[in-house]
Amino acid sequence: MEALEDLVLPPGAATPYLGLLASGLLGMAGRYEFAVLLALFFGLRLAWPRAFALELDPLGFSYRPFLHRRRFAWRRVKGFRVRRFRLLGVVFFRSVVFETEDGGIHALPEGYRLGPERLAAFLNEYRATALGMAPGVN
Questions:
Q1: What is the pLDDT of residues 69-112, one digit of tens each?
Q2: 37-64 residue pLDDT tens
Q3: Which residue ranges form the domains of the chain, and what is each CATH number?
């Protein structure tokens, strides 16, 4: 079995700026409480991007969707796939989702600079290697 390295996939570069833009628009619309919360959250993402990264190691992975870190063991995850969310029949956005052995379905908060399709394929390959399985087996 090939040895796996711990990896850190940084969060998307544009997301904090879009969040700050949304914060400014909310402030202009008079929604100051929401504007301040968004500005604080996305300001933190700009200041400490590593805190919002996807971290992989031979035992599992972790990510921070908002204020708390979520950790999952590879052996408790059934695999990764891309789910398309539609609005009026048009794909509104795509997200990488995974199912846990207890039947829970979770979505990663972003594509971590790889995009959903590449990220799902990469995570499936990393998981297969970590579990000593042939690539492509979920």
A1: 899 999 999 999 999 888 888 877 789 999 999 999 999 988 88
A2: 888 877 877 777 777 889 999 999 999 8
A3: 52-131 (2.30.29)
Q: With beta carbons less than 8 A apart as the criterion, state whether 131 and 2 touch.
A: no
Q: Which of 50, 58, 68 lies closest to 112 in space, CA to CA? A: 50
Helix (H) or strand (E) run with residue 92 in it: strand 90-100
Contacts of 60 (CB under 8 A, 6+ apart): 71, 72, 73, 74, 76, 77
- Would you state the structure tokens that stand for residue 93, as one six-digit string? 């956005």
Which residues, in sequence order, are bridge partners of residue 94?
84
For residue 73, give the 3-state DSSP assignment: strand
